Amino acid sequence: MTVSHHVRVHASSENLARQDQLAWKIAEVAADPVEVEQAVVDMIINRLIDNASVAAASLTRAPINAARAQALSHPVSTGGAGANLFGTPLDRRTSPEWAAWANGVAVRELDYHDTFLAAEYSHPGDNIPPILAVAQHTGKDGRALVRGIATGYEIQMDLVRAICLHKHKIDHVAHLGPSAAAGIGTLLGLDVETIYQAVGQALHTTTATRQSRKGEISTWKAHAPAFAGKMAVEAVDRAMRGQTSPAPIYEGEDGVIAWMLDGKDAAYEVPLPAAGEPKRAILDSYTKEHSAEYQAQALIDLARRLGIANPALRDPANVDAIVIHTSHHTHNVIGSGANDPQKYDPTASRETLDHSVPYIFAVALQDGGWHHVDSYTPERAGRADTVALWHKITTAEDPEWTRRYHSDDPDEKAFGGRVEIRLTDGTTVVDEIAVADAHPLGARPFARENYITKFRLLAEPVLEPAEIERFLDLVQRLPELTAEEVGQLSIVAKPGLIDAAPAPAGLF
After folding, report:
1. Alpha-carbon distance 408 to 492, whole Å?
2. What is the pLDDT of residues 377-391, one digit of tens each?
3. Gap between the Cα atoms of 106 and 99, Å rounded
């Protein structure tokens, strides 16, 4: 059972009681000692595998090299054993906030891990790096780690269900800071008061604009959730030392809702588990088969299906126009409704191209598939026939697809669209797709074997076969892991791989 919490702005003179504040309600959920159900445990294992997959694939990419170099510039802090970095030897550790930073960048870089879409966007797997880093530093076992991750997913996804950030051009990681802080609080068994202060600080320090996902999208897109995770670790540290946070952080007359979101007259209904209710939110999230923005997943599947069935559609000489009728979000964020000329620029960054559904649809249509590296190379983006086809593709908002995007009915909720292809001979091809093939309601829902296949595919170029098997054996025993084994829950690159990657110099 969930409880809906009415959240509105309060004048300072109203003296909103602490126990009535959303941050306190979040802290109460985090402090609830309820056990984690087996289905949730199984999905947490899947997502740890998923995170390791995409981190492995990005180990030598420039943003990861920079973030890892920063992290390795900092020694293990006092008070614990430190935390692992993806790719480095297990005995080479750093301070947990810097491990959260570097590992968060590695997980996020390829835009290839899990997602949950509702009133706001989210990648709830971003909770895992900071919670895992603190678990390793403080010597927590697998059971404690499971409980912490379940809380991180629950809080972020419940906030995402209720509070829209992007409408006000606030980046979605503003829900991640509080959720990661809450998850760490659960992991450590902290009291409600301490978690409350950490949640408030984490929110206060992680609100930023959505320019990180607009126009010429930069490498900061991968760093943004990592920064939120790092801030969450630091917020918990300060709260444990007795330091307090701005309050009421959400409801105050100069707080987040009043000045960053819907304003002083705003009201939200935020669903949170009742006391004693298991945290099940992770079961409503979904991962990616393709390395691209989630709202493009179903459209990639549709494009590859259309291209294979009718190869003539791949030749721009045969195509007059392609219109993708889809939701408001898809049209305005990754479609032509964003009015970003960069989404049609063959010299645009990889980060920009993976947020351009016209580009993605053109390449998937022509190639009959999608590859996390090959589909984004400058050569692929600049191919003349692709550019010609790409520039014939636009999106249009369809009220019905917008309604389905926001539906509370999981059997109706959809992230796809209807595609109309007008050919030069006057004929048309029309087809549609509601959810991605890998979605729980899709043609080929992801199960454990799919997560393992994805991991093997992405890890084989950079990990030794024995290391792949070591990690898979360890992670699938997650709830029974000792603290020492949790300290080994990372991936180690092939000898020389990390050393050969350029480590740019900075201040540290």
Report:
1. 41
2. 999 999 999 999 999
3. 11
Per-residue exposure over 57-85, b if at least 16 CB sit within 10 Å of its own CB, e if not: bbbbbebbbbbbbbbbeeebeeebebbbb
Q: Is the dihedral of CA 47, 120, 224, 460 positive or negative?
A: positive
The answer to whether the CB of 290 falls within 8 A of the CB of 44 is: no
- Measure the CA–CA gap between 481 and 40, rounded to whole angstroms: 17
Distance of CA 172 to the CA centre of its chain: 9
Q: What is the pLDDT of residue 475?
A: 98
Helices (H), 163-217: 176-188, 192-204
pLDDT in tens, 261-312: 999 999 999 999 999 999 999 999 999 999 998 999 999 999 999 999 999 9
Give DSSP secondary structure letters for 442-457.
Answer: SSS---HHHHHHHHHH
What pLDDT digit, counting tens, does each position of 135-175 carry? Answer: 999 999 999 999 999 999 999 999 999 999 999 999 999 99
Backbone angles phi and psi of 431, in degrees to 5:
-155, 165
Q: Which of 371, 437, 452 lies closest to 48, judged by CA?
A: 452
Which candidate, 99, 104, 103, 125, places its Cα nearest to that of 114? 125
**How much is the pLDDT for 85?**
98
Among all chains, which residue has been given the structure tokens 């009535």? 20
Largest Cα–Cα distance of the chain, in whole Å?
A: 72
